[in-house]
Amino acid sequence: MSAPTHQPNDASTQSGPFAPNPGETHQEASSAAARLSFDYQLLARLQLDCDYYLGHGARAKKHLWAGDEAAQIQKMRELYEALPEKPEWLTLDEISRYEAAMVGHGMDARGAKAEAHSA
Known about the structure:
This protein is mainly alpha-helical. The protein has a domain of 75 residues. It is built from 3 helices and no strands. It is elongated, with a radius of gyration of 20 Å.
C-alpha cells in the first residue's frame, strides 16, 4: 500500500484577490495578501463607524476613523476602488448613501429621509 501523496499549498494553485502575481516571491505575495486583507478589514471598520455615527453615535465626528465625514467617505471610496474583488457587503451606491446621510443631504444610510436632530 502506498502512502497518500500530499500536494503542497502551491501559490500557483491559489486564486482570488489574495493570489500572488506571476514572478512574485513568497514574501512579496504574503505582503500583498496581508495588505489586501487589511484594506478589506479597514473598509468594513469604516462602514461600521458610519453606521454607529448615524445611529447611537449621535453624529459625533469622534466616532469616525477619519475624524471627519467627508474624509471618511473619501477613504471608503479610495479603498473600494483599489480592491481587485469588490465586497458583497458594500457597494458604491451604499457609500453614496452614507455620504448623503453624513455630509448633510438629509437622507439616512438606507436612502430614507433622515429625521432632524435638535442640538
